[in-house]
Amino acid sequence: MMFFLAITFLYGVLFFATPTLVSAAFQDFLKTFLSILPILAFVFFIMFLNNVFVKPEAIGKHLGHDSGLRGWLYTLLASMVISGPPYVLFPLLGELKDHGMKYSLITVFLNNRNVQLTFLPVMAYYFGWGFSLIFAFYVVIFAIFSGIVMEKLVKMS
Amino acid sequence: MQDIRSSLRKTFQSIQASLPILMGVLLVLSILNPLFKEYYPKIFTGNYLVDPLIGTIAGSFSFGIPIASYVVGGELLKEGVSLLVVTAFIFSWTTVGIPMIFLESAHLGKRFAFMRNALNFFLAILIAMLTTITLRIF
C-alpha cells in the first residue's frame, strides 16, 4: 500500500511540472488496467479454485521438494502454455510457493516465459523461424540452468 | 463449505495484497514507457559491448506479456537496431523486471527476487550473444 501511495504522490507532484505527460500516462494506466481486469479476474478465480482443490500434499508431490524430473517437465510445459504479465503471475506463484513449490521450479516458470507456444508465430513473423527456434532453445536451457543456480543460492542464504 | 469459505478469505487476502502494488507498478510503467520508447532508436549506436548492455537495461525497465516485446523488438529492428541488442532486449523484457521487483519481493521473497533479476540481467547478454552467433553458424 505504501508503494502505491508513494507513486500516487509522485504523480501529483509531477502533474504540476508536466501536466501533459502525467495526464497521458494516467490515461495509459487506466486503459492498461481496464484491459487486464478480465485476466486478473480469471487469475483470481484460478487462485480461488487452487485454494479449494489443490492440497499442499499434491503440490509437494508434483512441484515440491520430491517432485523430481516430472516436476521440471510439468513446469516447463506450464510456462509454455500459461501466458500473462508477471504482475498477474507473481501472486499465483506466491500461492504455489506457500503450498510447497520449489524455488528452482518458480525460476524455471518465470524464466521460460519467452517460449510461449501461442506467441511463437509472432516471434517468427518478426525475426524468422531460425532465430525463434535457436532463441527458444537457449531460453529453455538457461531456464533450467537458472533454476538449479537459484535453488542453490536460496539454500545458501 | 468450510473449505470454500476459508479459500475465499485466502483469495481475498491475496487480492488485497497484490492489487495496490499492481496499480502502483502500472502507474510507474505508464510514465516510463513513453520516455524509453522515444529514445530507443537513438540510444543504440552499433557498439558490440555497450549496445547489448543498454538493450538489457532498457528491457529490464519494460515488462508485460512476451508478445509485446516481440512487437517493440521488431520495430527496433526496422529502425536499424542490431539483432544482438534486440535479443537482449526481448529476453530481459520478460525475465528482468526492475519496476516489478517490489511485487515479486512481496510474493516470492526479497532475496529471491533480487538474485533472480541479477542473474537474468547477465544471462540476457549471454543468451543474446549465443543466439546471434549460432544463427550466423547455421
Polypeptide structure, described:
The complex is a heterodimer of chains A (157) and B (138). Chain A is globular, with a radius of gyration of 19 Å. Chain A is mostly helical and 157 residues long. In chain A, 83% of the residues lie in helices and 0% in strands. The longest helix of chain A has 35 residues, at 19-53. In chain A, helix 2 (19-53) runs parallel beside helix 5, helix 4 packs parallel to helix 6 and helix 6 (103-111) runs antiparallel to helix 8 (129-156). Chain A is built from 8 helices and no strands. Chain B is elongated and about 60 Å long. In chain B, helix 1 (2-43) runs antiparallel to helix 2 (50-61), helix 2 (50-61) packs across helix 6 (110-137) and helix 3 packs antiparallel against helix 4 (83-95). Helices cover 84% and strands 0% of the residues of chain B. Chain B is mainly α. Chain B has 6 helices and no strands. The chains are: A mainly alpha (157), B mainly alpha (138). At the A-B interface, helix 1, helix 2, helix 5, helix 6 and helix 7 of A face helix 1, helix 3, helix 4, helix 5 and helix 6 of B.
Biggest sheet record of chain A: none
- Spatial gap, N to C terminus of chain A: 28 Å
Give the amount of beta strand of chain B, in percent: under 5%
By DSSP (H or I, 4+ residues per run), the number of helices of chain A equals 8
Q: Topology as H/E string of chain B? A: HHHHHH
Oligomerization status of the protein chains = heterodimer
Round the mean pLDDT of chain B to the nearest integer and report it: 83
Biggest sheet character of chain B: none
Alpha-beta content class of chain B? mainly alpha
Helix content of chain B: over 70%
What is the number of E strands of chain B? 0
Largest interface: A-B, 61 and 64 residues
List keywords for this structure.
heterodimer; A: 157 residues; mainly alpha; 8 helices; 83% helix; B: 138 residues; 0% strand
